[in-house]
Design goal:
Elements (H helix, E strand, L loop, with lengths): L1 H19 L3 H31 L4 E6 L10 E5 L3 E5 L12 E11 L5 E10 L1 E6 L2 E6 L6 E9 L2 E11 L4 E9 L8 E6 L10 E5 L3 E5 L12 E9 L4 E10 L1 E6 L2 E6 L6 E9 L4 E9 L4 E9 L49 E5 L8 E6 L10 E5 L3 E5 L13 E11 L2 E10 L1 E6 L2 E6 L6 E9 L2 E11 L4 E13 L14 E4 L6 E4 L6 E3 L7 E5 L10 E4 L6 E9 L9 E7 L2 E7 L7 E10 L6 E5 L10 E4 L2 E5 L1
Antiparallel strand pairs: 1-2, 1-4, 3-10, 4-9, 5-8, 5-10, 6-7, 6-9, 11-12, 11-14, 13-20, 14-19, 15-18, 15-20, 16-17, 16-19, 21-31, 22-23, 22-25, 24-31, 25-30, 26-29, 26-31, 27-28, 27-30, 32-43, 33-36, 34-35, 35-42, 36-41, 37-40, 37-43, 38-39, 38-41
Helix pairs in contact: 1-2
C-alpha cells in the first residue's frame, strides 16, 4: 500500500504542474508522465491483487442464521483454519446454536512439484458439501452424528478453488476440513487400506502391500486386528498396459466399486452373496490409477479382481467405433457358476410390472442385415454440423470411458442419431433399448421410448403390435460423462394364455409373508437416517429420504423368506404414507439369477403390487432387497419398506 500512496502523491503533483504550465510543450510533457504513472498504478494494483490472491491461505467465511444459506449473511469474516467444534454453542454473535448454515471459500495454489493425487478429509456434524473447482466431491446434506468423509482427486499445477458448505440442525455442531497429497502409488503391487468399519471412514486400521487381489476369507478376518464382519478395504495402484480394450472382472461378497482412470466402471455397493461383474474399457497406453473399494457386512467374505485384453475381431472391415462389452451376473452363490446377461444395471422402464396373465414369452428371431445411417455430434443436443457420418450394421456399443471414434468424437458430451428401415412380418414385437445416458426411440415417426436424461445403464422396453411391412426407426442418444453405452434390439413375442380356472373351488394358495418387523427382514445403513411409523401393513413401516446415487452409508432393506423350492408370484405392500418415490428399485434374487423391478410407490396406497413370478431355490439365496438409491433429486422423495409376500403357483 506504500507504493500506492507514492503513486497517488506523484499524480497529484503532476496535476498541479499541468495547471501551472502555460506552454503547450510543457503541458504535453506533463500529460505523458501522468499517463505513465496511471498505467504503473494499474499494474501495481493488479500485481498486489494477484499476489494476495495467490497467497490466500485463509477462508472467506459467511454465516447465516438459517439452514438454507439464503438472505444476507449475519457474519462475514476470515477464518484462519476450517476446524471448529462449537459443541452446543454458536459460531458468533447473531447466530443461534442450532439451525444455522455457513459457507467457506479459499484458493489452493499447487506448484509443479506438488501436483498429484490428493485426499480431502471432512469430519462433520451435521451436513456438508465440498466442491473443488466447482465439482461436487462430497455431498452429505443430512442430519447426522459426527461422521467422516473422504474425496480422492488429482490436482494439477495452478490454482484451485475450494468451497465448503455446512448445515447445523440440532445438538452438537462441528466441522473440520483438511487435505494431503497421496503418496505415489505402487506399480507392481496394491496398497491396501483396511478399516474396521464397512464404510471406509475414519483412519485405516492397517495399511499393507498386497501382491494381488484374490482373497477368499470365508468367515475369517482378513488380518490380525481387523473384524471378521463389518470391515472395508480400499486397494490402489498405478497400472500401465498397452493401448487396447480391456475387460475388468470382479467377484465379491459383499459390496464393490471399481474405478479405473477416474471412471467408475463397476458400482454395486450392496450386501450380496458371491457375485461376478465385468465391464470393458479402453486404455490408451498411459499409466492410470486403479482403485477397488470393498466392504464386508456379515457372513462369508471374498474379493477378486482380474483383467484381460480383448483380441481384435478378425472381420475384414471392423467398425472402429464398436467396443463390445457386457456385465455378467452369476446366481448369488459362493462358487460362481454360469453367468447371466443382461447387466444388473438394466432397469425396466416403460413396461408395466409383469402380471401372471397372459405371460409374454420372447421368441428370439434372427435379425436381417440392416444398414444404419449414423451421425455423431460433439455436443449433447444433436445440433450443428455432424462431426462424423458413416454406415453401421447394428447399434450395440459399450464404449466405457472411450470415444466412438477417437480423435474425432469426444469421449464425453457427444450425441448420435441412427436411422434405418426394417421389414417385419405381422405379429407382436418387443423393442429393447439399453443406454447410459439419454435415449429416444421413434417408430414410424412416433416417440415410443423416452429416456432423455442422465442415468446409469438402463433398459427400456416397448411392445408393438405390427400388421406387417416396413418400419422407420430413429434412435437418438447422448452421452454426458463417465461410462457410455447404447444398444437396440427387438424380438417377436407370443402370448401364452393362462388356462381357465377349474369350476371346482381352487385350493388356497400357499403364502409366505415377511413383514418389516419379522426376523426375516434385515436393514442397514446410517442408523440416524432411518425413520419408522405406526402405519402400513401390521401398523408399522420403515422409511428414509432417497439418495440420488450410491453414497457411503446408504440405507437398504432385505426380505428373506423361508420357501420350499417352487414357483412363486411376489407381491410388495406399498403403504399410503411415507412412500413418495417414483423409482423404488427392487432386486429379486431367484434360482435364475437377479431381476430388477422398478415400482412407482407414489402411485399406490395400501396396496399389494406384483413384482412378477419366479422360480425360487428354497435356500438362503432367495431374497428381495431395496435400497434408498433411486437416482431422483437428492432427498426429494421418501422410500418405504413394509411387507413382502410370496404366493406359490
Amino acid at each position: 500500500m506504500q507504493s500506492d500512496n507514492r503513486i497517488r502523491v506523484g499524480v497529484s503533483r503532476l496535476f498541479a504542474c499541468l495547471r501551472g504550465r502555460k506552454d503547450i510543450g510543457g503541458r504535453i510533457a506533463c500529460c505523458a508522465v501522468l499517463l505513465g504513472l496511471c498505467a504503473l498504478s494499474v499494474i501495481a494494483l493488479n500485481s498486489a491483487d494477484a499476489l494476495a490472491h495467490e497467497s490466500n491461505t485463509t477462508w472467506d467465511a459467511d454465516y447465516w442464521d438459517n439452514m438454507t444459506l439464503t438472505g444476507n449473511a449475519v457474519i462475514s469474516r476470515e477464518d484462519e483454519t476450517l476446524d471448529f467444534d462449537w459443541g452446543d454453542g454458536s459460531p458468533g454473535t447473531g447466530i443461534s446454536g442450532d439451525r444455522f448454515s455457513a459457507r467457506w471459500e479459499r484458493h489452493l495454489n499447487i506448484s509443479a512439484d506438488e501436483a498429484g493425487n490428493y485426499i480431502f478429509t471432512v469430519e462433520v456434524d451435521d451436513g456438508v458439501r465440498l466442491w473443488v473447482d466447482d465439482v461436487l466431491q462430497i455431498d452429505s446434506w443430512i442430519e447426522q452424528a459426527k461422521a467422516s468423509y473422504e474425496a480422492r482427486l488429482h490436482l494439477s499445477e495452478g490454482q484451485h478453488l475450494i468451497r465448503v458448505e455446512y448445515l447445523e440442525l440440532a445438538g452438537a455442531a462441528s466441522i473440520s476440513v483438511s487435505w494431503e497429497r497421496e503418496p505415489d502409488l505402487p506399480t507392481t503391487y496394491w496398497r491396501g487400506e483396511y478399516y474396521n468399519n464397512s464404510s471406509l471412514t475414519g483412519t485405516a486400521h492397517t495399511t499393507r502391500d498386497d501382491a494381488r487381489l484374490n482373497f477368499d476369507w470365508g468367515y475369517e478376518s482378513p488380518l490380525t486386528g481387523i473384524n471378521q464382519d463389518g470391515f472395508s478395504v480400499r486397494w490402489s495402484r498405478s497400472l500401465q498396459l498397452p493401448a487396447g480394450d480391456y475387460r475388468f472382472t470382479v467377484t465379491v461378497d459383499d459390496g464393490v466399486r471399481l474405478i479405473v482412470g477416474g471412471r467408475t466402471l463397476i458400482d454395486f455397493w450392496q450386501i450380496q452373496t458371491a457375485t461376478t461383474y465385468s465391464q470393458i474399457t479402453y486404455l490408451d497406453g498411459s499409466a492410470v490409477t486403479v482403485r477397488m473399494e470393498y466392504f464386508e457386512e456379515t457372513g462369508q467374505a471374498q474379493a477378486r479382481l482380474t483383467w484381460s485384453r480383448l483380441e481384435t475381431s478378425p472381420t475384414s472391415t471392423p467398425d472402429p467405433a464398436s467396443t463390445p462389452g457386457s456385465t455378467t451376473i452369476p446366481p448369488a452363490s459362493p462358487t460362481p457358476p454360469a453367468t447371466y446377461t443382461p447387466a444388473p444395471t438394466a432397469t425396466p422402464a416403460t413396461s408395466a410390472i409383469p402380471t401372471s396373465t397372459p405371460t409374454i414369452t420372447p421368441t428370439p428371431t434372427s435379425t436381417p442385415v440392416i444398414v444404419w445411417q449414423a451421425l455423431y455430434w460433439n455436443n449433447r443436443t444433436l445440433t450443428g454440423t455432424p462431426a462424423l457420418a458413416r454406415q453401421e450394421s447394428s447399434v450395440d456399443y459399450n464404449w466405457g470411458s472411450g470415444s466412438p471414434a477417437p480423435q474425432t468424437i469426444n469421449a464425453d458430451s457427444f450425441s448420435a442419431r441412427w436411422t434405418a428401415q426394417i421389414s417385419l412380418e405381422a405379429g407382436t414385437y418387443r423393442f429393447d433399448v439399453v443406454s447410459d445416458d439419454g435415449v429416444r426411440l421413434f417408430i414410424d415417426g412416433v416417440k415410443q421410448i423416452d429416456g432423455w436424461s442422465d442415468h446409469p445403464a438402463t433398459t427400456y422396453q416397448y411392445t408393438l403390435q405390427h400388421d406387417g411391412g416396413s418400419l422407420s426407426l430413429i434412435l437418438e442418444y447422448y452421452e454426458h460423462e463417465e461410462a457410455a453405452q447404447v444398444k437396440l434390439s427387438w424380438a417377436a413375442v407370443s402370448a401364452v394364455a393362462t388356462p381357465e380356472a377349474s369350476p371346482s373351488p381352487a385350493p388356497t394358495p400357499i403364502t409366505v409373508m415377511v413383514d418389516d418387523q419379522d426376523s426375516g427382514f434385515q436393514r442397514g445403513g446410517l442408523a440416524t437416517t432411518w425413520q419408522e411409523e405406526t402405519v402400513g401393513h401390521s401398523d408399522h413401516l420403515f422409511w428414509t429420504n432417497n439418495n440420488d446415487k450410491t453414497r457411503t452409508g446408504y440405507n437398504w432393506g432385505r426380505w428373506s423368506p423361508d420357501l420350499e423350492a417352487a414357483s412363486y408370484e411376489v407381491f410388495v405392500y406399498i403403504p399410503s404414507n411415507h412412500a413418495t418415490t417414483g423409482n423404488a428399485r427392487y432386486w429379486i434374487s431367484h434360482s435364475g439369477g437377479f431381476t430388477l423391478r422398478e415400482v412407482d410407490q407414489s402411485q399406490h396406497s395400501d396396496q399389494w403390487v406384483s413384482l412378477g413370478t419366479y422360480t425360487f431355490s428354497g435356500t438362503d439365496e432367495d431374497y428381495i432387497s431395496l435400497s434408498d438409491v433411486t437416482y431422483e433429486t437428492y432427498l426429494s422423495t421418501k422410500v418405504a419398506w413394509d411387507a413382502m409376500k410370496w404366493e406359490k403357483q
